[in-house]
Each structure stands twice: as C-alpha cells, then as structure tokens.
Amino acid sequence: MAINDDLRGEAGGVPAAGVVSGVIEDLKAYRRPVDANPLFARLAAGEITRFHYLAYLRETYHLVRHTPRYLTLAAERVAYTDERLSAYFRNFALEETGHELLCVRDIKALGEDPERILSGGPNPGAWGMVTQCYFWAGQGDPIALLGEAFATEELGATNARR
After folding, report:
1. What is the pLDDT of residues 98-140, one digit of tens each?
2. Which letter does DSSP use for residue 143 in this model?
3. CB within 8 A of 90, min separation 6: which ones?
4. In whole angstroms, what is the distance from residue 101 CA to residue 93 CA?
5. How far, in Å, are 29, 49, 51, 122, 129 from residue 133 at the CA level?
6. Most buried pick, 8, 110, 116, 138, via CB within 10 A?
7. pLDDT band at 89 (very low <50, low <70, confident <90, very high)
8. Alpha-carbon distances, residue 41 vs 26, 31, 33, 118, 119 (angstroms)
9. Res 155: pLDDT
C-alpha cells in the first residue's frame, strides 16, 4: 500500500499530495501579509536597528512569559474531555517554560539593563495576543491555541534565519 493510500483516510479521501500542496498554499497565503509588514520587510533588508531589536525583545518577553500559564489553563480545561490534547498542552507548557529568559540574555548581551527595558506591561499588540490566548484557553476553544502556536513558531523559525 502506498503512503498516499494510507493518508487518504486521514485527509477525508483527498490524495495526500493534494493535502500537502493545500497546506503549502495556506502557508504562502499566511506569509504574504507577514512579509508585507514594514517591520519584516526591514528585517529582510537588514535595516533593523538596535532600538528595534530591543523593542522586539521587550514585547516577546511579555508574550512568552505567559505562554506556559495559558497552556496549563488549557490543559486543565480539556483534561476530562481530551486526554491527548491535555497532555500535549502540558508538554508544550513545559517546553516553553523559561523562554522569556532568552530575551533577558539578549538584552544583557546588548549591554542593557533588563529591568529598565522590561519595566511596565506589554504594548497593545503583544497584550492583545496574550489576552486572546487566555480567552481561548479559559473561555473559548482551546484548539485555537494550536493555530496561534503554529503561527508564532513558524514565524520565529522562518525569521530566525534572516
């Protein structure tokens, strides 16, 4: 039996090649507005300054320090209805724990005081992402966190190479 035959059932009867090309097209569609964003255009052109990077580290710090908390909330919420998803969220929370310290390390490496850079709360964009994730975890559909995780992990993986 060919792998395409094995995957046909998983893809609702659609040949696997069609599913894969569909996912690739979805990723391209997702990337278009991201790549068109002036910040990412400047990143690609090598025009990001120290100020920009410090601002990015500040907002990322505030965003990622909440990740284990809302993933744990989501794990608790689905624990009795979907053990596999609950375990996934718990494992993901453990993997994400302490990632904000990477931002602190980079701030120190730039010769800046992390307390000064990180003081106060996040700006509206990062705070909007944080509060949306807490909503999905605690009130909305925790499955949405998988999309958020995919988007942010893919964004980081793609742009880390630039």
Report:
1. 999 999 999 999 999 999 999 988 999 899 999 999 999 999 9
2. T
3. 71, 72, 75
4. 15
5. 23, 29, 27, 15, 6
6. 8
7. very high
8. 20, 12, 11, 25, 28
9. 61
Structure tokens at 90: 């718990």
CB distance 56 to 160 below 8 Å: no
Entry pTM = 0.73
Quote the tokens at residue 59.
Answer: 């907002």
Asked if 95 and 31 count as a contact pair (C-beta separation under 8 A), the reply is no
* H or E element in which residue 108 lies: helix 100-109
Q: For domain 49-159, give the CATH number.
A: 1.20.910.10
Q: Which two tokens stand for residue 112?
A: 């800046």
Q: Average pLDDT of 52-78?
A: 94
Alpha carbons 162 and 157: distance in angstroms, whole number: 10
Check residues 146 and 97 and name the one with the higher pLDDT. Answer: 97
**Cα(139)–Cα(88) distance, rounded to whole angstroms?**
19
